[in-house]
C-alpha cells in the first residue's frame, strides 16, 4: 500500500490592498487545481502572513533568521514542493508586497517549480510575470514551462517544454527528450510520489538545455490508442518529437539528446538506432536482458521478497512463463485467468517481451551514458555492466558507465532500495548525483562548438 504524501503546491496571493481581486483569483486557481489529485494545494495569502518590510540583518542566503515572523514564513515556503504566484500588474510590474515576501528567504525557494497566474491592466498582468521570472531564475526556481502540442499522424502529443535558464531569444539551445519508465504515463514521470522527469527537466534547464517531456499515447493530453501501441510505436513518437524540435528556432538541431528511465531507456535506444538526428543517449536504470528474461527476473524478485510458501512461489513463476509464452506464440492460454490474459495479451507487452537490447545496441552509433542506482532492486545494478558491454560491441565509439551509490530505482537516495521502502522515504527528490552526472555528461558531449 502506498503511504507517500502527495506533492504540496502553495498558491501565493500576492496582493494585499483593500478591494483586491487576488483572493478571488487564487480561489479560482485552487478550484481548478484541486481537480487534479496528484498533489495537495494550499492558499497562502500574504495579507494573512502579514510580513513587515524586510527587517533581517543577516542576508537570507545564509538562512539564519532572527525574527519569528521570518521563521514562520520560512516553514510555510519550505514545506511546499512548488508554487503558483497570483499577482496583479502595477505600473508594468508586480507589486512590492510579493517582492518583499520573496526577498525574506533564499534556499527555501530553490529548485522548486513555480507557475504564474496574472491579472489586471490591458495586458492581463503578463508584464508582471515577465518582471518576476528573472528573480525566480536567480533564486533557482523552475518557472512552469511552455505547454505545446506535437502533431503526429492522426493524433497529437501533449507536451511541456522547459526552457534553459537565462537563454536569450536568439540562442539555439541543445534539447533533451525525456522518457518515462514502465507504467508511468504522465509527462512528469511520477513514481511513488517522485516526479522523476519533472525534476530532470529542471536540472537540465539549469544546465542550459531545453527539455521536453510528454504524456504517452492515450494518456493525459495525448491522443492515440495506448492499448494498440508497441515499443517501436513509442520509438517512432520520439523520432517525431526530434523532427518537431529540429524545426524550432530556439533549438540547435545538431544537439538533440534522449534521456530515458527504465523502459523509457529501451524506447530511447530503439529510437536512436533508427534516427540519425539524435546526437546522444542517456540510459538510466535500464535492463540488459531480453524482455522475456526481464519479466521473469522481476517476478522472481517479487516472490522472493514475499512471505509466500515455496510451492506458491514456484506456481507464480510457472504462471509467468506460461503467460509470456502464450503472448509470444498465441498458444497456451488454457488455465490462465481471463483478467490476467486481458492485461497481458496486448501489442505493447508482446513488443516488450520481444525486445532484445543486444540487437538494438548494434545499431546505436551515438555517444551513450549508462547510469544506474547501486541499490536499484527493480532492475538490479548488474544490468548496468552488462548493458555497457553490449553497447561497446556495437557501433557507438563512446560508452560511459556511472553507478551512483545509495540510489534506488526511483532515482532517490535510499538505504535498501527495496520497493517496500518506497512508502517510508522522506526525500522525494531525484539524487543530486544523478542530476549532476546526466547534466555534466550532456554538457561535455554536446558542447556549444558543435553548432
Task: Walk me through this protein's architecture.
Strand 9 and strand 10 form a beta hairpin. It is globular and about 75 Å long. 37% of the residues lie in helices and 19% in strands. The strands form three sheets. An eight-stranded mixed beta sheet has the order 6-7-11-8-12-13-14-15, with helices on both faces. A five-stranded parallel beta sheet has the order 2-1-3-4-5, with helices on both faces. The mean pLDDT is 91. The chain is of the alpha/beta class and 451 residues long. The protein has three domains: 7-143, Flavodoxin domain (Rossmann fold, 3-Layer(aba) Sandwich); 146-290 and 355-450, Rossmann fold (3-Layer(aba) Sandwich); 291-352, no CATH class. It starts with 6 loop residues before the first strand and ends in a 6-residue tail after the last helix.
- Overall residue-averaged pLDDT value: 91
Compute the CA-based radius of gyration. Answer: 24 Å
Structural class: alpha/beta
Largest sheet: 8 strands, mixed
The residue fraction in helices comes out at 25-40%
Kindly report how far apart the N and C termini lie. Answer: 49 Å
Question: Could you say what the CATH topology of the largest domain is called?
Answer: Rossmann fold
Name of the CATH class of the largest domain = Alpha Beta
List the helices and strands and how they pair.
Blueprint: E1 7-13, H1 22-34, E2 39-45, H2 46-49, H3 68-78, E3 82-88, H4 96-103, E4 113-119, H5 126-138, E5 142-143, E6 146-151, E7 156-162, E8 173-179, E9 190-191, E10 194-195, H6 196-206, E11 210-214, H7 231-246, E12 251-261, H8 263-274, E13 280-284, H9 291-304, H10 310-329, H11 338-344, H12 347-354, H13 357-361, E14 368-373, H14 382-392, E15 399-404, H15 432-445
Parallel strand pairs: 1-2, 1-3, 3-4, 4-5, 8-11, 8-12, 12-13, 13-14, 14-15
Antiparallel strand pairs: 6-7, 7-11, 9-10
Helix pairs in contact: 7-8, 9-10, 9-12
